[in-house]
Design a protein that fits this description.
Elements lengths: L1 H13 L16 E2 L14 E8 L5 E11 L2 E6 L6 H8 L2 E6 L2 E9 L2 H8 L9 E7 L1
Parallel strand pairs: 1-6
Antiparallel strand pairs: 2-3, 2-5, 3-4, 4-7, 5-6, 6-7
Length: 138
């Protein structure tokens, strides 16, 4: 029985399973982008992306997110952040991998304060539970 558990754990760490909309995954599949510091202006509007974080048990946890570029920075929003696993993982280890257009970038996620978020989003609506992450170079 222990052997089966070890096999499942090792498989979860090393075998890529990409997320699919609401279904989370493990390690993201694909190759690292040659240019790890691109000009994000190629992104037009909101773009679907995938973020890979590390769980408490070191198993990769990946999810589908909405990302966008603004003033040369890459951002990822998070609704009801306090109820999700990935923001907690980022607090513990901000080193992430993000996949955009089949290219994987090794980055660092920085959660912005509510004031910083409001300046960037420029909304006149209250946004309780809304988190915003700036995706920086490692």
């Amino acid at each position: 029985m222990l052997g089966v558990l070890v096999l499942v754990y090792i498989t979860a760490i090393f075998v890529p399973i990409n997320p699919n909309e609401q279904q989370p995954g493990t390690r993201l599949s694909g190759d690292l982008a040659e240019n790890q510091n691109p000009d994000w202006s190629f992104m037009k509007g909101r773009t679907k992306a995938y973020i890979e974080t590390r769980s408490l048990y070191l198993i990769p946890h990946s999810i589908t997110v909405s990302s966008w570029s603004q003033n040369g920075h890459l951002y990822v929003g998070c609704r009801d952040c306090d109820t999700k696993y990935w923001p907690t993982n980022v607090v513990r280890d901000p080193n992430i991998r993000i996949k955009i257009d089949d290219k994987i970038y090794q980055r660092r996620a920085v959660r912005l304060s509510d004031e910083e978020r409001d300046e960037i989003i420029e909304s006149d609506k209250s946004m309780p539970g809304m988190g915003l992450f700036r995706i920086d170079l490692r």
